[in-house]
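Researcher: Quick test of sequence recovery. Tokens follow.
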């Protein structure tokens, strides 16, 4: 089973049933995919989904996530600080490394810096590329 970390914008992109990326969400729901999430990430998910939709919808998504057996709660023990341009993005990197995720799914260009870091290696894929792999 693939273990991933998904950034907030990509999570929002996979939720609508008509989204070309919805397969990521259905694969998670059908337990073909593990999603690693730290407390910081979970709080950001809830905040941004609430802003873009409604608090009730955000709560439903969070409950769905945390009640699945393939939801992996990660408690990062290291703060790597690789992303200087947007330090808030580091929580996704820390979660990926500490959660032993296969990859981080993001379209955010700030993560491009990770290509130059050899250890610990974090593979980043755009959501479009990840969906092609799943298909």
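Model:
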């Amino acid at each position: 089973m693939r273990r991933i970390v998904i950034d907030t914008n990509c999570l929002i992109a996979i939720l609508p049933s008509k989204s070309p990326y919805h397969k990521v969400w259905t694969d998670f729901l059908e337990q073909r995919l593990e999603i690693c999430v730290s407390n910081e990430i979970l709080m950001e998910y809830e905040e941004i989904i609430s802003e873009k939709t409604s608090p009730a919808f955000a709560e439903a998504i969070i409950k769905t996530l945390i009640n699945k057996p393939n939801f992996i709660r990660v408690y990062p023990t290291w703060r790597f600080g690789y992303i200087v341009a947007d330090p808030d993005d580091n929580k996704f990197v820390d979660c990926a490394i500490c959660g032993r995720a296969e990859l981080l799914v993001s379209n955010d260009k700030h993560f491009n810096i990770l290509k130059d870091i050899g250890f610990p290696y974090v593979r980043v894929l755009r959501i479009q590329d990840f969906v092609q792999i799943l298909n």
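The domain at 2-134 is CATH 3.40.50.1010 (Rossmann fold).
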